[in-house]
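Pasting as-is:
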Amino acid sequence: MIPVKQLFQTARVAAAVLAVAALAGCSSYRPWLNAGLPATSDGAPPVAPQAPPRPSGPVVAAVTLSGGGARAAAFGLGVLRELKATTFNIDGHPTTLLDQVGLVSGVSGGSILAAHYAAFGDETLTRFEPDFLMVPFEAGLIRQAFAPTRLYHLTSPWYGRSHILAQRLDELYQGRSFGDLRRRPNAPDLMVTATDLTTGTPFDFTPEQFGLICSDLDRTPLSFAVAASSAVPILLSPMTLQNHAGECAPVPLPRHTATAADDYRTRLLALSAQSYRDAKERPFIHLVDGGVSDNTGARLLLDRLLAGGSIATSFKDAPPGSIRRMVLITVNSERDLAERIDSSDRVPTTGQVIETLVFGAGARETQVTLAMLNDDERRWQEELMRTRGTPGSPFSADAELHIVSVSLHDVPDDKIRHSLLRVPTAFTIEALDVRELQKAGAQALRSSVEFRKVRDGLARLDEPLLSPPAADTAPASARTVPAAPRSDGPSSAPARPGRASGDSPAAPGRS
């Protein structure tokens, strides 16, 4: 996410310094590496921990934040603030839409914000700007890289440039792990997506994924996951996990439960999961930027929901008729390529090739995910209209599903939009751009036609439940909603109990 030219200049200087350091001998320093699951007292194979079910509530909400460096983090922060400003009542108690978010998913730059919000809750709305967006984060990384101890560590074959990023992020997250998130009351579930360098498929930091490699997600630092999700190939080094498959009870492979024959996406999901089953064949897993395989943070969520067979399977523990509103907010902060190599007959430079391969490929994968979501949403809406209010259904008779797409391309003002679309993908951007991106995120959400429907639907929650509203089963792409990356958040997000606005506790001190 650091500008290509600057990274190459820094890399040349670093290479020269490392060459000198290597003359003094290579370091044997080893950074954090995930361990296997602890042994059981009776000698039986340990069982991979599963995410505990959440109590259900009338509103289920999720947010996905795309990649795009600090540009994505600032734009996404504006969206989160607008969600906090969206107030309504549940059973007469005031709350906000942000308070009802049960899942936040992030990729690359979006994962920096997603992890911070999962760790600190509403404090992020005031702390994230001064703690990350307004500090010279990139300059700090470069200074740390040239510190004598880090230079020596970089001569270790187990330590790479992304580990410096992870150490800086660990300061931002105050040493938090995924286990700390689970122990924080009312914290949303966090999903961070990287890319498996060998298979080219998304790898998400979730209990399901870690169950495949017989490792405990709770002991994984947030900084490691976010650094892996942000590790742009070549420019930053891959992050490595150890595969402990075979050391625990096998996790069932995904299988489509609604049809006799597996859907091709479910088959691909099963093949990807199967690739982790043989730790002798793949003892280590190397991860790079999640945007290479899925810049929306939605692909695996969508595929797992499809394998489940129906949207209702995501709410197996919800009491009948308890869910009235499902809301998914997808935030797309992608920009156009800085240079169009097709406009010249000159041989593309190395920097142009890297940008086109990395960011161009991510944009293509975004379009693939959007097409998947478009098809999936049509099925979800049809299922909801068919099953809501029926005996045993978790959906009330007036249940609604809304997918809201928010994109930089949706910013109404032409001048501001074109200016923000030129903001580079980097860890540090101009202070003026930081502020404009936050305002643009809030404005893009407010101007969304689908989001207006969300607010209207939330306002009706305190009204007596009469008959279902008229069905609007058309997918979002067929409605007047600006196109943007989406994900399956509400269907995969655990149900979340309604809580009053301001109930988010302050984050605990560093342990």
